Amino acid sequence: MKKELFFKTESLWKTLEDEKLDTVQDFGESYKSFIDKSKTERKCIKEIIEEAKADGFISFEQYQGNGEKNGGKNLQGGEKLYFINKEKAVILVVVGEEPMESGVNIIGTHVDSPRLDLKPFPFYEDSELALAKTHYYGGVKKYQWVTMPLAMHGVITKENGELVEITIGEDPSDPILMISDLLPHLSKDQMDKKMSEGITGEGLNVLLGNRRIKEGEEKEGVKAYLLQLLNQKYGLREEDFAFAEIQLVPAGGARDVGLDRSMIAAYGQDDRVCAYAELQAILNLNTPKKTAMAVFVDKEEVGSISNTGMESKFFENTLDELLFLQEGTTRLSIRRALNQSRALSGDVMSAFDPNFPEVLDPKNSCYLGKGVNISKYTGSRGKGGCNDANHEFLAELRQTFKNHEIQWQMGELGKVDQGGGGTIAYIIGNYNTEVVDCGVPMLSMHAPMEIISKVDLYMTYLAYRAFYL
Ligand code: MN
Ligand code: MN
């Protein structure tokens, strides 16, 4: 009787056949090489486009350029297009059999991750050290970022229009950068502080050098040596950095975790792990019944605002362009299409962590190894600001997952009133589209290195795939 009535899921490491587990390991390897090339949102978008192009996707601009297809009413089922937004967001589309006005299947993930950005005028010298001031991006626990090997990734357009790209700290022969911390011997006052105050935002100043120029200025000779180096290597002056996008991220690549190599630790897995599952789900997709859209956006970690975040009109504009290509019509069609659409907001979910049981409800948490997580709602303090999925849509999703043997679990973000969070789901919901959060369970979310289980990544890919089919 209990077996019939009680709900129980088992670890996928137990239930998947050995052959499938080999596939899981291979999938993890490809993912690691993807995430190593995707340390910033720009690099991640570039990588997504590379893989899409190899699968036959062509750019919207290229498609428009094909004369005979111009002017609408020509977009056919099976055609594959990509739309880029300012090198920081991209939408991949596989046109379905049915007209888009009858609804499309959307998966949306974000490709930005918490990090430290350089301030516009970052460089200064103190006590024979050259340092750079940073301003953190997204939700970081500041104490995690000190004494940590850091790499610098950046893009700068010089005054003459020349583009300079900087990557320092990823190659094993590169130097790394680092923020110092206080020795325990002198940390009495620091250790008595609240954790949120032990390391401050203004204290996250990264070490860049100690060597000084030999001739001339006594004052700021270390900063001078640093600027001289940057000038010799990249032709940059201090002023150029005021117009740059430069990020500090944990140095080095993804690593297997555990003696059994069951897990992966890497920087930026929130949310590039779901982005990878989403990308793989839309590649090699033969003409689906409904048009499949894979949306990859920026700025989720700072509220999804701005022209590259989910709040940007880019998503709507893209759908408008597609409807024009398919039907030659626009305004009303897009409203109808969005009204009939369904979406998964692909984002990671904090898994049950035995080190912190006090903040998690064991019955309503997801667990590493038990499959893709569905979050019916997010939000905080009484579901504030949440997207709470409708049961009609969840019933459809349940059926889809059942038909494709997708093992799911359903977790919420911590105990009631412990905190909370949100994703891009509510923004998609604003279009009257059915949407639910669905993604990979994770430990140490927003830490410099985040942890996921390989089986969950693979199951999330299968879930996203099933959603498109
Ligand atoms: Mn996220
Ligand atoms: Mn996040």
Describe this structure in words.
The protein is an alpha/beta fold. It folds into 2 domains: 2-113 and 267-468, 3-Layer(aba) Sandwich (Aminopeptidase), CATH 3.40.630; 115-250, Aminopeptidase i, Domain 2. Helix content is 30%, strand content 23%. The chain has 14 helices and 22 strands. It has helices at residues 2-5, 12-15, 18-36, 41-54, 60-65, 188-192, 195-198, 221-234, 269-282, 314-327, 331-339, 391-403, 425-429, 454-468; strands at 58-59, 80-85, 89-94, 105-110, 115-126, 129-137, 150-157, 163-168, 205-209, 244-250, 255-257, 263-266, 292-297, 342-345, 349-350, 372-375, 379-380, 408-410, 420-421, 434-439, 441-442, 450-453. The strands form 5 sheets. A 9-stranded mixed sheet has the order 1-2-3-13-4-14-20-16-18, sandwiched between helices. A 6-stranded antiparallel sheet has the order 8-7-10-5-6-9, with helices on one face. Strand 11 (255-257) and strand 12 form a beta hairpin. It starts with a helix and ends with a helix. One manganese (II) ion (MN) binds at residues 110, 270-271, 300, 347-348, 423.
Short description:
By secondary structure, the chain is an alpha/beta fold. The protein folds into two domains: 314 residues, Aminopeptidase (3-Layer(aba) Sandwich), CATH 3.40.630; 136 residues, Roll (Aminopeptidase i, Domain 2), CATH 2.30.250.10. The strands form five sheets. The protein has a nine-stranded mixed sheet with strand order 1-2-3-13-4-14-20-16-18, with helices on both faces.
